[in-house]
Amino acid sequence: MTNPLNPETPDGELVRLAKAGELDAFEALTSRYEQRVFGLAMRMLRQEQDAEDVTQQTFLSVLENLEGFRGEANFSTWVLRIASHAALKIIRKRKGLNTVSLEEATEPSDDLNSIPHPEFIADWRQSPEHLVERNEVRRLLDDALTRLDEKHRLVFLLRDVEGLSIQETAAALELSEGNVKVRLLRARLQLREDLTRVLGDPARQLVRSHHHHE
Amino acid sequence: MKCEELLAMLNEYVDGTVDPAVCVEFEKHMAGCNPCQVVVDNIRQTITLYKDGQPYAMPIQFREKMHDTLRKKWKEKFPGSENAL
Predict the structure, then answer these.
(1) Separation of alpha carbons A175 and A103, rounded Å
(2) Chain A contact for B72 (CB, 8 A cutoff)
(3) Residue A79 sits in which domain range?
(4) What is the pLDDT along chain A (214 residues), one digit of tens a residue?
(5) Co-location of A151 and A85 in the same domain
(6) Cβ–Cβ below 8 Å for B81 and A26
(7) Which of A119, A130, A139, A199 counts the highest number of beta carbons within 10 A?
């Protein structure tokens, strides 16, 4: 009743109040994370209607399962985990598959020995600070993300865009930390390769002086 | 340290979680290997670009509709909580 629901109220307190039946607390939690969920879904799916579906499903699922949330993970990690699974479900459906398991997508090639080597190496013509302000850059970033396999894309988005730790990303996706690290490395390298081909300065392209052995 | 070994440690180095002794080796390699230095710079810039990129704004009309739906569901779940609004 007299509980102040302000931006400083910790998630855990809002969760406690929501579990006790306070709608205001649940709405505050929703408002706190809906943009992040929507943004993650847009970057995964690139389709507004699908991103809206994922967002709504996520918070309906939060509502349904709140009682079972014991706070082993951060609330934010838990929400992003639900959203990740909802987004994957749509991707799998688009591909005509019915499974949502991430482990199933694990390939034997997910080890460090098969990491692709950087090919196009050049300094960028502009700094990221200048680039983010250019409208065509978002398109470029999204195109590069789309070319990533979804299992790599999701790891990159959770870790590098949403700022989850390796451990939290592993927990959210029910993967081992080792698996998360390899996927993250692959994602970062592939995005670097893609972006450098467009943003790199060809006049300053570097060629490795030695050959690596296949 | 060889280029391949550097590649394998790239995450830890960029995220600042690399063992200090390995960090010294890593930086020694980069000082003598311009391509590796540029790859590390590129990776950092790539992450920054995505992190600081323009966010997607959720449409306001959708937001209102979603909150309506959630409120209805909430009242089914907690029938006694109507006065909470």
Answers:
(1) 7
(2) no
(3) 11-94
(4) 445 578 889 999 999 999 999 999 999 999 999 999 999 999 999 999 999 999 999 999 999 999 999 888 899 999 999 999 999 999 988 888 655 555 545 454 566 667 888 999 999 999 988 888 888 898 999 999 999 999 899 999 999 999 999 999 999 999 999 999 999 999 999 999 999 999 999 888 888 765 443 3
(5) no
(6) no
(7) A199
Looking at the structure of chain B, the number of domains it has is 1
Answer whether A188 sits within 8 Å of B46, measured CB to CB.
yes
Q: Which pTM does this prediction carry?
A: 0.89
A25 to chain B, minimum CA–CA distance in Å? 10
**Same domain (yes/no): A79, A39:** yes
Domain count for chain A, please give it: 2
Distance (Å) from the alpha carbon of B16 to chain A's nearest alpha carbon: 12
ipTM associated with this complex:
0.90
b/e per residue A120-134 (b: at least 16 CB within 10 A)? bbbbbeeebeebbee
Which residues lie below 8 Å from residue B73, measured CB to CB, with a gap of 6+? A60, A63
Residues 31-60, chain A, touching B (beta carbon < 8 A): 34-35, 38-39, 42-43, 48, 51-52, 55-56, 59-60
Residue type, B54: Q
Cα-trace Rg, chain A: 20
Query: Which residues on adjacent β-strands are paired with residue A124?
Result: A200
- Nearest CB to A192; choose among B46, B58, B74: B46
